Amino acid sequence: MPRKPNPELTDSDNPEADEGWFENAHPAREVLSKLVGETSAQELLKPKRGRPPLPSTKRHINLRIDEDIIQAFQESGQGWQTRMNLALREWLTGQAKLH
């Protein structure tokens, strides 16, 4: 037996899509340019996959580090690899000042 919708949760401004709504629906590529303009529509319809490219990328390497150092960073919680990267950057910055 289907449950009766809770009238407190129904949104009269946004009714549920029924068969008639779907029959009148059109693909975004057909109507978007009329709503936002051709240039914006083309940009919105471009396929985008994955994370946006970063300004400077990181490089994957294999690095052997003492277990106690790794544990100390891991125990500091999520983001430990980022903090390790920052610690190396701080060390490198300090070295540049010495030379």
Tally of helical runs:
5
Low-confidence stretches are none
Shape category: elongated
What is the CA-based Rg, rounded?
A: 27 Å
User: What is the beta-strand fraction?
Assistant: under 5%
Q: Give the ordered list of helices and strands.
A: HHHHH
User: What's the main sheet like?
Assistant: none
Distance N terminus to C terminus?
79 Å
Count of DSSP strands: 0
As a percent range, the share of helical residues equals 40-55%
Mean pLDDT: 88
Structural class based on helices, strands and sheet pairing:
mainly alpha
Describe the protein.
The protein has 99 residues and is mainly α. The protein has a domain at 67-98. Helices cover 52% and strands 0% of the residues. The protein has five helices and no strands. Helix 2 crosses helix 3. The longest helix has 19 residues, at 80-98. The radius of gyration is 27 Å and the shape is elongated.
Layout: helices, strands, pairs:
Elements: H1 19-24, H2 28-36, H3 38-45, H4 67-75, H5 80-98
Helix pairs in contact: 2-3
Quick description:
The protein has 99 residues and is mainly α.
Core attributes:
mainly alpha; 99 residues
